[in-house]
Amino acid sequence: MIEVQDVTKSFEKEPVLNNVSFTVKRGSIYGLLGSNGAGKTTLLRTIAGILKQQSGEVNVLDQSVFENEDVKQKLIFMPDSLYFLPQYTARQMASYYQEIFDSWNEDRFQKLKAVFQLDENKKISKFSKGMQRQVAFWLSLSVMPEVLVLDEPFDGLDAVMRQKIRNLLIQDVADREMTILISSHNLREVEDICDHVGILHKGEVLLERELDDLKSDFHKVQVAFKEDNKEILHEQLDILHHTSRGSVQLYIVRGAESQVKETIQALQPVVFDLLPLTLEEIFIYELGGAGYAIENILT
Ligand SMILES: Nc1ncnc2c1ncn2[C@@H]1O[C@H](COP(=O)(O)OP(=O)(O)OP(=O)(O)O)[C@@H](O)[C@H]1O
């Protein structure tokens, strides 16, 4: 489990993380979202014990993580820019990991060979970007970590491999309660795999929720009335966004589904559809509400 409490981090007096607090429970998959430069990588590197926060606490598996060898035995951090020892093959990297990590599982490494189907004796630097990402997963999962921290893990992977890796991660969470923290701009992947999400914006946690709970709180409403009810709707609903398409109005609304339905039905609409939002849409409207221009968001 990961506990971040009131963490503040600056680079040369420039604040990057500002009183960040959140918890990832054991056996949970947490998606950390955020705009470019929000501080996600800095937060992940702090959680991995690579950077030290100026104030606040970062505990992993109930211990302070910075310079803590015991925790680092059980935690794997996969950065967005991968690093392998120069000239090493996957087999040589595996032997290196075996030396470092007490929990290295050679049997797992052999079994995962069938999933990745990479030549373990080829120099990793000769592999493509996506294949290098596969090697990183191959090695990381063979360590059998208790905590896996992943920065843009799906970068460069094709759809089939993304699916295979997603299944492997879910299997480890189900079988042995591995805890995963993922930072990604790929919101569809996050939506498919995570049970909790947090949005980081300008070094602060804007929102943190269970994914199902979050999704049940946002709706896309298409509605038309005989009379103009726009003012009443704006008074009675928490409207995040509104556009008109002729006589049909499209609203993005926050609130309990039953309450939204009740409010609209009381006004006797002639057209009324209520649809869920994708995580990508929630992210856009939440950040839009925080003053972040919608067109800047998707990368
Ligand atoms: N080593 C460093 N020295 C100085 N400033 C840094 C350093 N690392 C990050 N920063 C700054 O901290 C801020 C947050 O960067 P970070 O990489 O954590 O953001 P991010 O949310 O991961 O962004 P992206 O989505 O673009 O990858 C940026 O303004 C960046 O310039």
TrEMBL record:
SMART domains from the entry?
AAA
Please give the InterPro entries that the UniProt record associates with this protein.
AAA+_ATPase, ABC_transporter-like_ATP-bd, ABC_Transporter_VariousFunc, P-loop_NTPase
Question: Record keywords: Nucleotide-binding included?
Answer: yes
**Where does the secretion signal sit in this chain?**
none
Q: Which molecular-function annotation in GO is an example for this chain?
A: ATP hydrolysis activity
Report the domain of life of the source organism.
Answer: Bacteria
Indicate the transmembrane segments per the record: none
List residues of the ABC transporter domain. 2-227
A Pfam family the protein falls into: ABC_tran
The record's listing under Gene3D superfamilies reads: P-loop containing nucleotide triphosphate hydrolases
Coiled coil spans: none
Instruction: Could you list this entry's UniProt keywords, alphabetically sorted.
Output: ATP-binding, Nucleotide-binding, Transport
Name of the molecule in the record: ABC transporter ATP-binding protein
